[in-house]
Write a structure and sequence with these properties.
Blueprint lengths: L3 H25 L11 H34 L17 H6 L7 H4 L1
Length: 108
């Protein structure tokens, strides 16, 4: 397993990147004004695109919450340890799915 300072740097880097995504998605997720002078099909496309952005925003917020939680737990003795099998969780998995407390095998 990597040393905790390297993990801290990776987590902080991912937090900054994910915060940027949240800001971008928040800007894109603004309501579509009903008085917007766009055609009906274009309006439907805009509404569909908004729902996709809303889903991406929710996912980014969940990821950010998980990354911050992982950072808070970093100095604990159980950081990076699967709660089910007690094996180490690879850092790649922690960065990919920071909200998970399970290794890949136990998460299935």
């Amino acid at each position: 397993m990597m040393d905790k300072e390297k993990i801290r740097e990776l987590l902080n880097s991912e937090i900054v990147k994910t915060e940027g995504q949240v800001v971008r998605y928040t800007d894109l997720a603004q309501p579509i004004s009903p008085d917007n002078a766009i055609g009906r099909v274009s309006r439907m496309d805009a509404i569909n695109n908004k729902s996709i952005v809303d889903a991406a925003l929710l996912k980014a917020k969940e990821r950010l919450k998980g990354l911050k939680s992982s950072l808070d737990k970093l100095d604990g003795s159980d950081f990076g340890v699967c709660v089910k099998c007690k094996n180490n969780i690879p850092i790649e998995r922690i960065l990919l799915a920071p909200q998970s407390s399970f290794c890949v095998n136990c998460a299935r």
